[in-house]
Amino acid sequence: KDQERLMRHRYLDMISRKLEQLERTAEEQRLFLMDREERRQREHTRRKLTLRRKIEEEWKTKEMLLLTRMAEDVKREERIEEQQHRNREESDRKKQDLLEKKMAYHLQKMQDTGFNGEDIGKNTFKYRGQDGTHGE
């Protein structure tokens, strides 16, 4: 009987050790799987953050390029408007010079043909419109 009890006790010890070993192995596997899942999630998060940074940098680059183009367009339009303004001023100045030359020519011609100041004044009054401007 003692021997039978001893054998039962040994079997129970062996079974207990085997169960403890299986429990440790299961705990190690559970910890290993948790660690692996945690690393996978960190890697996934890192990839998402890296992708987000990359996209943000691309957008910033595109925004800067767009702003640069807009600034160039504004400068180009400003130069065009400035050139048009100079061209208008030059055209106006040339017209004014031509008008002054024509007036000087006609005044000289009138003086050469013998018009006197009174005749010029009378003719000017005669051709005025009702609003006081010269008629054509």
From TrEMBL:
Report residue spans for region: Disordered.
Answer: 73-100, 112-136
Judging by the UniProt lineage, the source's domain of life is Eukaryota
Which InterPro entries does this UniProt record tie to the protein? Answer: FSIP2
Please give the organism.
Answer: Homo sapiens
Name of this chain's protein: Fibrous sheath interacting protein 2
